[in-house]
Every structure is written in C-alpha cells, then in structure tokens.
Amino acid sequence: MELPSVGTWECPDRVSLPCLKTLDIDVCDDPHENAFRVISGCPLLENLSLEVYHVWGEHERQDDYIFNIPTLKRLKLMLGYDLVNHKVVLNVPKLEYFFLCGELFSLFVMEDVSSLAEVTLSIESVFGIPNISQLFLKGLLS
To answer: Phi and psi of 12, rounded to 5°?
Structure first.
C-alpha cells in the first residue's frame, strides 16, 4: 500500500489492514495524525518505509515516535531536519534491516533489535558533532 504525499488525507479513527505486510508512507506534517494510525492497524507488517519531511507550526507535537511492531523485518526511516523534539523508540525484535537517512536530531532508543543483521546510515553531522554515524553505531552495539 502506498499513501499519497500530495494533498491532505484524513485517516479514519480505526484502521484495520490485517493482511498488509508492506507499507510506504510519505508525511509532510505530523505523522501521529495519520501515519501511526495506519501503522498500528497492520498487525502483520513486515516492511515499513516512513518519510517525514518536517513538522511545523500548529502540527508540531512532542510525542515520541514509537515503533512497537513485533513482526517488522525491514524499517526505512527518512527524517527531515526539524524533528528536534522527538524521541524515536524501536522495539522491533524481528528487525533484520534498518535504514536511517536524514539529519539526526532525535534521540534514538533501541529497546529490542536482537535480530538486526544490517544497518545503513546516511545521516549528517548535527550541531557540529563529528562522526555522528560512529556515535549512533556505538549506541546500537552497547
């Protein structure tokens, strides 16, 4: 399933996609409004690609981005530059492949990534911190 990134799309309060295994979402505002509702309605999700361009103005919330998806095997996150106030929590015990792209402003918490086999990082140095990729990987391994 691919959701359009153009225009405004209102997600129903309850989403049920019980057989969906692959989901690609591009979000131009707060992912809590629509994207996370869709994700939570996919109990068999194995492949998730989420691109969040930026959150601004009235849409900006302080909520964490929590990925508690026991079936997820592949996660591709592309985060925009102004997602400063969010914590990303990964509780994905079957995750094998993780791709992270963008400027790393968010705090990442890896609760369960015990099956992780491959990580691809394409992140930029932030706040003058050199070797941000090495620091991120060190956190993964500890």
So the answer is: -60, 160
Task: Determine contact, residues 32/61, Cβ cutoff 8 Å.
Answer: yes
Residue 11: C-alpha distances to residues 43, 45, 85, 101 (Å): 17, 18, 24, 26
Please give the model's pTM, rounded to 2 decimal places: 0.78
Enclosing domain of residue 124: 2-141
Q: How distant is the alpha carbon of residue 10 from its chain centre? A: 20
pLDDT in tens, 59-81: 555 677 889 999 999 999 887 75
Total domains in the chain come to: 1
Closest Cα to residue 133, out of 96, 91, 98, 83? 98
- The three-state secondary structure class of 134 is helix
